[in-house]
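Subject: Interface between my chains keeps coming out wrong

I've been trying for a while to get a sensible model of this assembly. When I model each chain on its own everything looks fine, but I need the whole thing in one frame so I can look at the contacts. Pasting all components below, labels as-is. Any help appreciated, I'm running out of ideas.
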Amino acid sequence: MDKILVTGGLGFIGSHTVVELQNEGYEVVIIDDLSNSTEKVLDGITAITGKKPIFVKLDLKDKAGVESFFKAHSDVKGVIHFAASKAVGESVEKPLLYYENNINTLVYILKELQKLPSASFIFSSSCTVYGQADELPITENAPVKQAESPYGNTKQIGEEIIRDTCKVSSSIKAIALRYFNPVGAHESVEIGELPIGVPQNLVPFITQTGIGLREQLSVFGDDYPTPDGTCIRDYIHVVDLAKAHVVALKRLLEDKNKENYETFNLGTGKGSSVLEVVGAFERVSGKKLNYKIVGRREGDIISAYADTTKANEELGWKTKLTLDDALRSAWNWEQKVRG
Ligand code: UD1
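Reply #2:
Try treating it as a single job with all components included. I did that and got this:
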């Protein structure tokens, strides 16, 4: 079976994707620098799949290290590239760190892929490239808007770098997957999200409040032009998202792609408000969540959810799990980690 490199394979979405790849029989090699993960995640992956992936601890900014990796693993057929920094606020404080971490590393990998006879490349992009879209649901044809943060900009620039590379390197085929809001954990509770410090994202903040680690969730604004006044997002279960990576990779490996570079939105197609997510948590946990409405968070968009037609029809992929499934698994995971 094909050997697939997963960078950032010990992270939240990476680890769930490694599980799905191994379940499909792929041989997985993980590169991770452990900057936002731990080696223990390997045990979780092994417990679920019965197979320990190869793990190489490497910082992808080490260009020589990347070259030697590809010399040692010249039989790699595909790469799923998750490794990146992703904290929006930090990226505003330290833009160059973000450009170095997210752009240099991408360039080094693509340079190595150019040397291979053929390579399939999947890129972790984000719906953040659309900003506040004028039309909902958001299709892949919606215009890419000026990025709100250096983090968002690295995703836009990353996509452009890949598109330009595919134009001149016919041996490289690529798909950029634009994720909406990934949440939840593997149902086995062997792997899940492990935020460092105070979580910035809604669902880990909710589960940490539920377990008593945080006193109260602040709901950022209830005066938006939405039915209940809180912002709307498209929360996608991380296991559904992970499966989409395997489907996209197969499309490239089996030459089923229509163009050398393609983009797909990955979401459920359904928008949920902040208060609906709180409601889902309360339903699945049987607990009342302590929350209060506070002012708006700067830079938040009002509403974003995916038009899933292209992913459904072209990839033949659809989400199967619900918001309640996601909150239930996230809650089970929180209880396991802190319980
Ligand atoms: C955020 C980032 C986005 C990034 C994505 C990655 C910002 C402005 N956007 O998206 O660029 O791609 O994470 O996952 O940081 N909320 C609360 N209270 C909280 C936390 C969140 O009310 O303590 C609300 C937010 O206002 C928002 C929703 O929950 O309406 C989801 O927030 P979050 O999980 O941070 O995701 P995004 O804002 O969609």
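Reply #3:
Confirming on my end. The domain at 202-233+269-306+316-338 is CATH 3.90.25.10 (UDP-galactose 4-epimerase; domain 1).
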